[in-house]
Amino acid sequence: MSENKTEVLVGGVVLAVAIGFLVYAGKTTGMTGGGEYLLNASFRSADGVNVGTDVRLAGVKVGRVTDLQLDPETYRARAVFTVRDGISVPDDSAVSISSEGLLGGNYVEILPGGSPFHFEPGDEIEFTQGSVSLVSLLMKFVSGGDEGATGQ
To answer: Distance (Å, rounded) from C-alpha 131 to C-alpha 108?
Structure first.
């Protein structure tokens, strides 16, 4: 009878640790349900951005990308992303795809404007800047950066 109680106690502890781990993982990754609203933006190039990519404002994670599709009419990448409730994004803000560094990943960065009016849920941010290709930057640097000159 004593072994049965010990097994139940150990099983309960293991279950409690597993639930605690899941709650912690959910909060860390931003997967827990909370107050969020959706915004949209379209980019010429969305290299390095996937569903789940961080959305940051002033370097602080405020949301994540929830959908990324190709618009068949404009041939632009259309991103849908969340922003936490309580964070009002001015309606003259811009969105860009930024890099964490040479070896880091990309993230979506909100560059706030100064308008007193704010985006409503579901609005589209018009001012966007797509990702910059590191390879193309290196090629410009190696070729001298002046591809239009003929040297004559």
So the answer is: 9
The answer to whether 111 and 95 are in contact (CB under 8 A) is yes
Q: Euclidean distance between the first and final Cα of the chain, in Å? A: 96
Distances, alpha carbon 85 to alpha carbons 33, 105, 136, in Å: 12, 26, 38
Q: What whole-number distance in Å separates Cα of residue 15 and Cα of residue 45?
A: 45
H or E segment at 105?
none
Q: What pLDDT, on a 0 to 100 scale, did the predictor assign at position 34?
A: 66
pTM more than 0.85: no
Cβ-proximal residues to 102 (8 Å cutoff; 6+ apart), any chain: 134
Confidence class of residue 118 from pLDDT cuts 50, 70 and 90? very high
